[in-house]
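Structure tokens please, single chain.
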Amino acid sequence: EIPVIADAWADPAFGSGAVKITPAHDFNDFEVGKGHGLPMRNILDADARVIAEGPFHGLDRFEARKAVVAALEEAGLLDKVEEKTIQMPYGDRSGVVIEPWLTDQWYVNAAELARAPLAAVRAGETRFVPETWTKTFFQWMENIQPWCVSRQLWWGHRIPAWYGPDGSVVVAATEAEAQAEAGADVPLTRDPDVLDTWFSSALWPFGTLGWPEATNRLARHYPGDVLVTGFDIIFFWVARMQMMGHHFMGEPPFTTVYCHGLVRDVRGQKMSKSKGNTVDPLGLIDKYGADALRFFMAAMETQGRDIKLSEPRIEGYRNFATKLWNAARFAQGQGIGGSRGPDAPPATLAVNRWIIAETRAVAAKLDAAMAAYRFDDYASAIYAHVWDRFCDWYLELIKPLMAEGGAAAEETRGVAGWALDQILVMLHPVMPFITEELWHALAERPYDLIVARWAEPAGEGERAGDAAAEIDWLIRLVSAVRAARAELNVPQGARLPLHVLDAAPATVARLETHAGALARMARIQNVVLAPPPPGGAAQLVV
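Here you go.
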């Protein structure tokens, strides 16, 4: 006789509606078996061979299944065989079908450990950035299941449990303590399992600081501030560090969790060895440099979005590093060295006051970007400042000043050295290697770049007034002339006159001051304060 169990889990639309139940070898059957108090009969050993007495004893699981069907057929009990598509789990590494197998494992009451982290996130003591991941955190933590922490691996933290010959269990911190608790004459055997990797990793915020001893490092560095991690391990690592931190230390291990996207291939697919689309970062570093790869990662890190790996973009940031290197070489060739600190030197020339204002303005942008964890904005702001404002405009505008010599050149050397130093300081978080190299190449320094301070950020609406207006006007004028020349296919070497109509006195003064820059950067032959002669002319309004 075979007992029949009535349970809502059986699906009448799938087959006959009556199915075998093996609580020790199926996850769903296990839950049904618990609900009905069914015996948990384990019929397999560790090699998936049948250990139940009978005609199938000793057979491999696959051989046993075929033998069962053959025996039913031989006895005339097999009515028919139907093809069915079912879900079958496979091991990632072995490629073998995973067989559920009832064994004794160690569990942690995760629901109890989840209480304090949940309360901390609700109270704002711990926050997620982007905030959308808070909902994901709540969904998992509020429905958390008991956590199986024992693993059958070759290495890891050994589970601190010992067994006596009568099956009794002793849990202790050391073998000596376990022996003392069990009795000196009781032979003990230690559990061969190790703790789940994520259990060990969860101890990281305080386990690396000398815990359980009350060390100075632990007092100084716990709790931490910001945890930067991929969103895909919120459940595996972040939540577990929070559980352990609250349980053992009584407070959250960090105040902010910044969740970045995943790096995917150029088509947006997740990288995996099976797909053959993985990219070795060391190969990219050999090809483009560590700084270029690091800057690419920062520039592409838009909150809530994954990163598509793009070699052309990485190559572009390699070129950006080259641009900075060449700018530093030009500065050295002009006698421009390092500055004395984050405070800007005094300046009277408009172009120097302008670059000081631009540098302080970008410092404000970087402060705001870092405070908001917008690393893409950080990279974008410093990139534009270095390539456009400093290299393409400032260095070009000061070349005539350096050629003239005298007081103007001396002032410009000081300001240019300070501006370049500030670029190295502000660029250092996203391009640490080239900036450190240049930092020491430009001057003898008593300290490394990582501890240098950048300039006082510009306040709201603060700029260099007339200097900003003057240089911005000059940049617009040169840009407009260049655009017109390109549109009309004017040969690059051709110099043309610039006729200026109805100019205000301030504009005339600017034209006189920056005549050299206009001649060199816009290829202007001369400035004429009168209408052009009859014939073709391009009209610009600045």
